[in-house]
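Appendix B, Record 12. Input sequence as logged:
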Amino acid sequence: MDAYDQTPELLDRVMLDTPEEAVRLVRIQIRTTQPFALSPAEVDRALAWSDSGGRIPTLTALHRGEVAGFSIVLRNGIRAEWRVRPVDYLSLTVAHR
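Logged structural output:
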């Protein structure tokens, strides 16, 4: 089975103030992914996205209000995926006890 055929599992959810902060967090997480968990080709792809190739188009998409993301496949076949969604407003409700 191909890793891209599987639905990714949610591991973390973070809300940040700006698209730049969101992309910065993704870059940090990509760059700190254990290098031995990735094939050399995936390391190259991840670093290329982080350093320029995907970062700038991702920021552009977020500023347009579009969803953006990046995914890599670990050596064990598991797909790691980052998705960033812009939020214009957030409605909070008070939970009554």
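The chain has a mean pLDDT of 82.
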